[in-house]
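Module 6 notes. Inverse folding takes a fixed backbone as the condition and produces residue identities as the prediction. Think of it as a translation problem where the source language is geometry and the target language is the twenty amino acids. Below is one complete input and output pair. Work through it position by position during the lab.
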């Protein structure tokens, strides 16, 4: 499982050649101006919620690639009207994709969800992606919440992808607490630096995790993290 960071909260997860693109917000992001969205591979597009900074490039990429959307019923209905297709899920549900090899579970996120025009975007969500006994937890935009403690009772999370920019989501301190709740040693930070209000001190953030015997990965936009190269542990 390889995770490529494409800026803001967007990642592309390569699972044995199948690409799961998450929350594509690339073309409007000046920090990702070197990323060519026409070269991005996507077999599935996971959408955590309807805010503009998570859906900006959904239509363009899905139409080019034929990617199936995985999201809540309200967001999927919105895109079905635009000619796209996919698989609707809701909180607590799971489904197997790629001939049953990849299990995706939709879980709670504490946030809001509306389209840029103000229309209802359904419940915000996170995803657990499980393949070959490796699990990635994508929290989506969320506040810290106690339900995260349920996750390690069912899944051994190898990598958590958490927002760390504060103001709209968890900040670094809450993301560290979330890592403790989930019992994960490796965290990929997202949703920071894109806008002035969510700029962070990256070195201080990494030190805070290191002091707790965990690792915060802050990738350059376009860089890839391979799970097999991590010293993966749950704590």
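Target side of the pair, the amino acids:
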């Amino acid at each position: 499982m390889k995770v490529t960071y494409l800026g803001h909260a967007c990642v592309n997860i390569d699972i044995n050649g199948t690409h799961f693109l998450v929350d594509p917000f690339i073309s409007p992001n000046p920090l990702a101006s070197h990323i060519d969205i026409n070269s991005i591979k996507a077999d599935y597009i996971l959408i955590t919620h309807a805010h503009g900074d998570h859906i900006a490039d959904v239509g363009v990429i899905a139409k080019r690639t034929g990617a199936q959307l995985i999201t809540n019923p309200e967001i999927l209905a919105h895109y079905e009207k635009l000619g796209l297709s996919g698989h609707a899920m809701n909180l607590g549900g799971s489904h197997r994709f790629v001939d049953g090899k990849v299990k995706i579970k939709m879980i709670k996120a504490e946030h809001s969800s509306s389209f840029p025009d103000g229309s209802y975007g359904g419940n915000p969500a996170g995803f657990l992606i499980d393949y070959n006994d490796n699990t990635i937890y994508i929290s989506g935009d969320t506040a810290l919440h106690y339900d995260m403690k349920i996750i390690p009772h069912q899944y051994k999370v190898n990598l958590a992808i958490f927002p760390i920019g504060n103001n709209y989501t968890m900040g670094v301190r809450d993301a560290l607490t979330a890592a403790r709740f989930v019992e994960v040693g490796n965290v990929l930070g997202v949703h920071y630096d894109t806008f002035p209000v969510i700029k962070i001190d990256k070195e201080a953030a990494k030190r805070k995790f290191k002091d707790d015997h965990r690792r915060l990965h802050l990738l350059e936009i376009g860089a890839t993290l391979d799970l097999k190269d991590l010293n993966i542990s749950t704590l």
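Reference fact for the lab report: The helical segments are 52-55, 58-65, 73-80, 172-182, 202-211.
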